[in-house]
Amino acid sequence: MIIGILALQGGVDRHERTFKQLNVETKRVRLPEDLHTIDGLVLPGGESTTMIKLIHSYNLFEPLKSFANEKPVFGTCAGSILMGRESTDFEWETLNLIDVSVARNAYGTQVDSFIDEFTFNGNTVEAMFIRAPKFTSVGNAEVMAEHNGLPVIVRNEHHMMMTCHPELTNELEVHRYFIDTFVKPKRARSVS
Fold first, then answer.
1. pTM for the whole structure
2. What is the pLDDT of residue 46?
């Protein structure tokens, strides 16, 4: 099993370290052909406008959409902005992978960043919120975790996205859930 991490900009190293702790191999994705050998993909946090511009520069937009039709994608922070149905204050077309509206930088500026806990999958998870987006409208998606009454992790049948960064607090639970719930079952079906 290999998890790809979009490596055009953003927090790639911390996701790699988290998956390594889970004994999962990773691969940095920069070009469309990199998508052919991975079983799932992470769209990391970073700067969403820069990320989408680079996605288009490397002709990755349509390959990412095609990949997401077949395999699971997990977005954190800026990655969730790219995955949602729409995003406020974002002039680009999103990948539209989960039926959620996203407000960019809704938690404030860099100085408003914070670490806090919430419950996910029956466990307490600690995560960092850095210029984090908020999910303002959740359509046909399941809310998996909330923080102060606001959804912070959502999913549909194939994909998952979150507004914060558990990879920055050395949490493993969310990444483990992505592997166990989305990647392993999909991989098992494609191998059989």
1. 0.90
2. 84
Q: How far is CA 13 from CA 4, 88, 139, in A?
A: 12, 28, 32
Residue owning tokens 């998956």: 19
Strand ranges of the sheet holding 40-43, from the earlier edge strand across to the other edge: 25-29, 2-6, 40-43, 73-76, 159-162, 150-155, 142-147
Q: What is the rounded CA–CA span in Å between residue 84 and residue 155?
A: 11
Q: Name the CATH architecture for the domain at 2-191.
A: 3-Layer(aba) Sandwich (3.40)
Catalytic residue set = 77, 165, 167
Backbone phi, psi, residue 29, to 5°: -105, 120
User: What is the per-residue pLDDT across 32-49, written as a single tens digit (0 to 9) for each?
Assistant: 999 999 999 999 988 888
- List the beta strands (DSSP E) in the chain: 2-6, 25-29, 40-43, 73-76, 84-88, 98-103, 114-120, 123-129, 134-138, 142-147, 150-155, 159-162
User: What does R_g of the chain's alpha carbons equal in angstroms?
Assistant: 15
Q: What is the pLDDT of residues 117-147, one digit of tens each?
A: 889 999 998 888 876 787 888 889 999 999 8
The Cα–Cα gap between 182 and 165 comes to 19
- Distance, in Å, from the CA atom of 78 to the CA atom of 189, rounded to the nearest integer, reads 30
